[in-house]
């Protein structure tokens, strides 16, 4: 038995194959684009969290460098300028946003006291928080009668206007 292939019956079949292939490839490319966008978003989030961690450790290092300021209580309750936040900061809450400008973080004209160093440390730290993180702000609170401190950094990760992420570092100088 011999089969004849009729060209008229198979016309257009390749066009359907091409259209199906284009549709499948299009869905695959949309998936890749979505994956790339998610990875860019995760990268930005990671960068902000890394900056918050670095800022928390920066303040911890500043405090360790001024042990006299720790002993005299100069670091016991640092909150953003003009903020309504108080110590202790709620562990699940965000640090309030600075509502007033910092002004100048000028250096001492003569030998600085431990309290002046602590005040300058806080001023520079608040400046850096607001520059490096969107709506970035920070607080340092002493944990009751113990020698432990909590350093909190909050920022607006989704750029909605209010801080929605917080990193808290607890340490003993």
Provide a descriptive summary of the structure in words.
The protein is α+β, with helices and mostly antiparallel strands and 173 residues long. Helix content is 45%, strand content 13%. A four-stranded antiparallel sheet has the order 1-2-3-4, with helices on one face. The mean pLDDT is 84.
What is the structure about, briefly put?
Helix content is 45%, strand content 13%. It is α+β, with helices and mostly antiparallel strands.
Q: What profile does the largest beta sheet have?
A: 4 strands, antiparallel
Count the strands?
4
End-to-end CA span: 94 Å
Structural class: alpha+beta
Mean pLDDT across the residues is: 84
Helical amount: 40-55%
H/E element string? HHEHEEE
State which percent range the strand residues make up: 5-15%
Q: Supply Rg.
A: 29 Å
Number of domains: 1
Coarse shape: elongated
Number of helices: 3
Low-confidence stretches: none
- Spatial sequence of strands, sheet with the most strands: 1-2-3-4
What's the structural blueprint in terms of helices and strands?
Layout: H1 13-65, H2 67-71, E1 77-78, H3 114-132, E2 137-142, E3 149-155, E4 165-171
Antiparallel strand pairs: 1-2, 2-3, 3-4
List keywords for this structure.
single chain, 4-stranded antiparallel sheet, alpha+beta, 4 strands, 173 residues, 3 helices
């Amino acid at each position: 038995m011999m089969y004849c292939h009729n060209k008229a019956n198979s016309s257009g079949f390749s066009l359907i194959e091409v259209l199906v292939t284009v549709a499948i490839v299009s869905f695959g490319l949309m998936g890749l684009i979505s994956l790339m966008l998610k990875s860019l978003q995760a990268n930005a989030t990671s960068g902000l969290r890394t900056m918050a961690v670095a800022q928390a450790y920066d303040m911890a290092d500043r405090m360790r460098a001024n042990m006299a300021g720790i002993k005299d209580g100069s670091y016991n309750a640092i909150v953003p300028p003009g903020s309504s936040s108080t110590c202790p900061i709620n562990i699940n809450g965000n640090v309030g946003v600075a509502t007033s400008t910092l002004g100048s973080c000028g250096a001492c004209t003569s030998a600085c006291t431990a309290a002046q160093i602590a005040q300058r440390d806080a001023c520079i730290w608040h400046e850096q928080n607001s520059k490096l993180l969107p709506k970035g702000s920070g607080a340092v609170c002493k944990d009751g009668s113990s020698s432990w401190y909590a350093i909190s950094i909050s920022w607006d990760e989704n750029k909605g206007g209010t801080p929605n992420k917080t990193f808290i570092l607890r340490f003993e100088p």
